[in-house]
Specification:
8 helices; mainly alpha; about 0% strand
């Protein structure tokens, strides 16, 4: 069971949430989320670069410099610096996104991602709130907001994401990486913030 929990935690790392969310939005949003192939490919590259590659490289460098003890960032006090680097990367992504003519719904999507990176950073200053809970809660909130804003039925996908998130968070609890309150608080806050951002921006 421990091995399965570790695999789930790695495969569904919160760093992958932005690219998964973007792809699913593009796939399910119909005309409101359509992007020309070239712009779609460029956006995929940009999201992977700024939300996965740059943050991962920064954590590896910080580990080599002795600023963090593990790339898993298991210690709360080691999280703020990598998270502020990730937040800066996402802000750069937002600037890049603003230079192109994206459908309006993508402004809300990128704002939701940035907002929850902010939550992750500020929460890490005091508590070890689950980043997995924040990441996957963000995706659930985005899809609830997408369904509400566009008036499309995404109940199956929201239910699927909730079930998947439940498995991921159960794995985090089994590994004793977090307490139940750290998991639930991150999950609930991120769902609400993402849902509101999708309806506001």
């Amino acid at each position: 069971m421990k091995t399965i929990s570790q695999i789930l935690s790695t495969l569904f790392h919160p760093s992958f949430v932005p690219i998964i969310g973007f792809y699913l939005m593009h796939l399910l949003g119909g005309y409101a989320t359509y992007l020309p192939p070239v712009l779609f490919g460029f956006t995929v590259f940009s999201i992977v670069l700024f939300t996965i590659i740059f943050p991962l490289i920064s954590v590896i460098l910080l580990k080599k410099l002795g600023k963090v003890s593990s790339i898993q960032l298991d210690k709360r006090e080691e999280r703020p610096l990598p998270l502020i680097i990730s937040l800066i990367s996402v802000c750069v992504l937002l600037i890049v996104e603003k230079r192109f003519f994206y459908p309006a719904i993508y402004d809300a999507f990128f704002a939701s991602i940035a907002l929850n990176y902010c939550v992750s950073f500020f929460a890490s200053l005091d508590k070890k709130i689950s980043l997995h809970a924040i990441g996957w809660g963000t995706l659930i909130g985005i899809f609830i907001g997408l369904s509400t804003r566009l008036g499309i039925a995404l109940h199956f996908w929201v239910a699927l994401l909730i079930m998947l998130t439940s498995l991921i968070l159960s794995a985090r609890l089994f590994l004793r990486a977090h307490t139940l309150s750290e998991v639930l608080s991150g999950w609930i806050i991120s769902i609400l913030l993402s849902w509101m951002a999708m309806l506001t921006f």
